[in-house]
Amino acid sequence: MTARPSSTSSSFSAAQPAILDLQDVTFAYGEAAPAVGGLSLSVPAGAFAAIVGANGSGKSTLARLLDGLLLPTSGRVLVDGLDTADSEARWEVRRRVGLVFQNPDNQIVASIVEDDVAFGPENLGIEPALIKARVDASLAAVGMGAYRRHAPDELSGGQKQRVAIAGALAMQPRILVLDEPTAMLDPDGRQEVMEVIGRLHAGGMTVILITHYMEEAAVAERVVVMEAGCAVDDGPPDEVFSREHRGLELPPAAQIARALRARGLRLPAGLVTVEALADALRPLMRHAD
């Protein structure tokens, strides 16, 4: 996608089957103006999409629509072909979509890490041997196997959030939706969580990351910008962040690149990650030497 969309409809790749398909979705809380208005969005399996926007843009409402915690006022939300409004499909929708919230303390329900991760599968009535296998695999995926017998209150914020992600993974979802998962974490915790997200996506997981940190959005394959409940831009990070959006700052790497260009350095467009900026600066530094 090379141009800013002129409507609220966006599709990352029409050639790939959609695992998430929002069709003209509107949602309003009571009599208030719609928090999401006429949103159409298609996400293929295995994608890593970041959803960004100013406060009140509808990002968190969208997260809850994706797993059926909220149902559209109008339109349809399809998860792997299942309609979230279909009461008979609702539990299967929530099994296929793992939802992780901002505050890890609000998601942990047990006093021991492995018991917390086992909570979801136990509620599905899965036999104990299979639950243990799921717990082992989920803790290994987030690098928390060594902490399985720890109490959650002994963990750092980043470790708690990794446990929350493990709990979602134990349900064996096809899609992981993370609503501001690093907002309450220190820089080390944020890095821990983003590394886990990167590994999960590399392993084939479909990831929807809602974030207000533009440097996190910059590492996604795709960025969707929301304003007033609508998708106003959608595309690769280097394209999306080449355009101005109300209430959003550029990723730090892009800000630095812009400042360096203003000082006369010839840098290519689309530098939105630290790694890309470093790669562009390296030959210039060698030339300066």
Topology overview:
Blueprint: E1 9-11, E2 18-27, E3 36-44, E4 48-52, H1 59-66, E5 74-79, E6 82-83, H2 90-96, E7 97-100, H3 113-123, H4 128-141, H5 157-169, E8 175-179, H6 187-202, E9 206-210, H7 214-217, E10 222-227, E11 230-235, H8 237-240, H9 252-262, H10 274-288
Parallel strand pairs: 1-3, 4-9, 4-10, 7-8, 8-9
Antiparallel strand pairs: 2-3, 2-5, 5-6, 10-11
Helix pairs in contact: 3-4, 3-5, 4-5, 5-6
Commentary on this structure:
It is built from 10 helices and 11 strands. The chain is of the alpha/beta class. The protein folds into 2 domains: 171 residues, P-loop containing nucleotide triphosphate hydrolases (Rossmann fold); 40 residues, no CATH class. A 6-stranded mixed beta sheet has the order 7-8-9-4-10-11, sandwiched between helices. A 5-stranded mixed beta sheet has the order 1-3-2-5-6. A hairpin with an 8-residue loop joins strand 2 and strand 3. Helix 3 packs across helix 4 and helix 4 packs across helix 5. The chain is globular, with a radius of gyration of 20 Å. The two termini are 39 Å apart. The N terminus is likely disordered.
